[in-house]
Write the structure tokens for this entry.
Amino acid sequence: MHFAPLLLIVACELLLLLIEQYTPLPGLLHFGVSVSLAAVLLCFVALFKQREAKVVDGLRREIDGMQQEAAKSARRYKSLLEGAGNAIFIFNVETAVLEEENRLGRELFGFTKDELSTMVVRDLIAPCEHERLRSFLYQLVRNGEADWDEVQLKRKDGSSFLGEINARLIDLGDEQVAHCLLRDITEKHRTEREIWQRNRELSILNNMLTSMNLGKDLKTVQEGTLLQLMELFRAESGTLHLSTPDTSSPTLCASKHASPELVQVLGTTLSNPDGFHDVCVVPLGDAGEGWGSLTSIPVNSQERLLGVIHLIHRESYRYTLEELRFLETVGKQMGNIIEQIRLFTELTWKSEELLRSHRLLEKSSHSLSVSETRLKQNLALVERAHVEQIRLDRMKNQFLGMVSHEFNTPLTSIISGVDHLLQQGWSSQEDACRVLEMVRDGGLRLKALVADLLKLIRLESRREGLETSAIHLRMLLENLLDQLQPLFEERGQVVTLRDLDHLPFFQGDCGYLERVFYELLLNAIRFSPEGGEIVVHGRVVQQEDLHQRAHTLMRFNPEFLRRCGERCYLEVEVRDCGIGIPLQEQQGIFEIFYEVGEIRHHSSGRRQGKGAGLGLAIVKGMVEAHGGMVWVESCEGSSFFLVLPLEQELIQPALF
């Protein structure tokens, strides 16, 4: 039963009675006002209760959400802890009690969670590491983090392993805990140790070879190798016994930390050399004065025993198969070095005896050495002469072919014309003039061929100097185009000069350069179809521009880039629109008497015919006489390039 409405009505009545003392109210109004006030107050109370209930319900839901989030965070933290790739341990810094660990940590040590919860950090570390543990904890508290490499840890079964710990300090307010990542580095350490040992083994072999190549004496090499083997395999003592031509059994050559009594014991083991075929490890027993094991390494050369290396350990030492193979290799390498040094020593001794006995032989030997050097030089000269002879034979064959073909045509005209005159007489002056013109044309053609041959000879022998003057490329080409205009009109071809006006003047032999561009333009006319376009383009290039095209230039003149220096060059391109030149024939076209295929495959003109193969050779010689070079590039049509120095060079290159 709720008394709130009744209490509200009573409170309203008391309030009305207090009001009526100052202002009387009618009875009905008094009752209505009392009920209204009670209802209003009741509504306010109900609203307050409802708001209070909502606030309480909201707080309850918020608390439930926080509890769920806390549980979710705990589960997430637990999952991350369990799913981590490394073993994780959390312990109290003050008490060193283990508070948390993940699954990998339990599996690594072999303990259960309940067992680890009752343990401290010291229980997981080998007793020999307890002193280092205090330093580790001190560093952790002082710096907030600490790393511990190569710590000995122990498992539940008593076995130990090598670990690596990375710890970070976490302040939780009421306590400080250490978050530790622990990794088992036993395998890593073993692998690093094996790599170090392999490198050390290779270093020993390399030092043996290096010492021999540096001319060190045999005893130094032997003692150094013995000491390195002792360090590598942690042997406390070692000896090296070698046999000599003067002794029947091996004698001591090198010893490290071996007493005379031990050396005597080892000497008795060498009485039977047949027992040393492979590397063997045997216990010394009572005869070794407390030494544990003896490792015997045979020193062999070509299946012949030269000696034995002994490594002695205080405790028994177990070798791996790789180590045994390495020791066998060391023995063979040492045997080879000893044999080579012995042979070298013997040869040196014999040489000295021969030198002392035969002084004349020394002079003869020196003369023989000089003769051998000269012979090598002569052989090189003969080889170069042979290559040159092949080239000259090829040029001779080409020359004979050219003479038989090129000289035959004008000679036939001359002889047939003279025969005609002799047989027919002077019956007609017109016929006689025509025949004499044919004889004259043939003679002029022969004269031109002979002039070209003489020009090549003078270029190659450098017997004709340059008569230089200031030249502008456009003016030079315009004079040539006037001479060649009938040929252009006959074939319907067009010549385009591009970017020539802005080019500078340069020093050159006007006669030479007129012949160069005459041959290049004539070549373009012959190998371009009727109605085609021939383009002549010029520009100034720097050293960098030439080096960017080094791959192409090296094919045509390997020495040009080496001697071109930092000068500027004038580059001229003469481009035709023929079918191009095959890559394998591009270098050959600048040789004497060289012709590319049949001209009928390159031109559609009415005046087709082969030349003598001298034009481009003359072009090459004349351009290189100026200190430049010429080459060709061919894709759609052929582009002949030549570069001429805008500054003269002192030394001219070989032309051919």
Notes: The radius of gyration is 54 Å.
